[in-house]
Amino acid sequence: xxxxxxxxxxxxxxxxxxxxxxxxxLTKFAVAAGLTMVFAAVPELLAGLIASGSVSKLAIGVFVGxxxxxxxxxxxxxxxSVLSTRAIGFGLLYLLVWEGLxxxxxxxxxxLSIGQYxxxxxxxxxxxSDLGAHLTLTTAVVAGLIVLVAAxxxxxxxxxxxxxxxxxx
Length: 169
Fold this sequence. Notes:
Elements: H1 3-8, H2 11-16, H3 21-52, H4 57-83, H5 87-105, H6 114-126, H7 137-160
């Protein structure tokens, strides 16, 4: 989200404007989360509606869980994009290693998994053991809020620490 701008130098124009860094981070996050909701959560809803043949608790649960996942994953990816110009690589490693490998094999890692937060929310609506949720709604919501606030706060502070330096005379 911001990694490409940092990498190609166009971040200089953004930093030269009198816009609060938190507004930049929140705007980038809101646009990315909104697009992810449209292109990931809505298809989940449509698939649930097609699979069940009507509006069901499972279809709604999976949709709401996908909305939660869209928001949380984008918050973490905004953070990655501010911390490194290689945010895509870090994001893929996070998904493959943490969410894919450790989140499924190590039970303690599930409490730090955005995928499990999403499944916890979905299961609280659908009440379907096939979802494989290992967290309660309370745990999923509280941990998800901590991840959301921490990621966006750290990203805004990190972007705020960037400075423009002129050439030596």
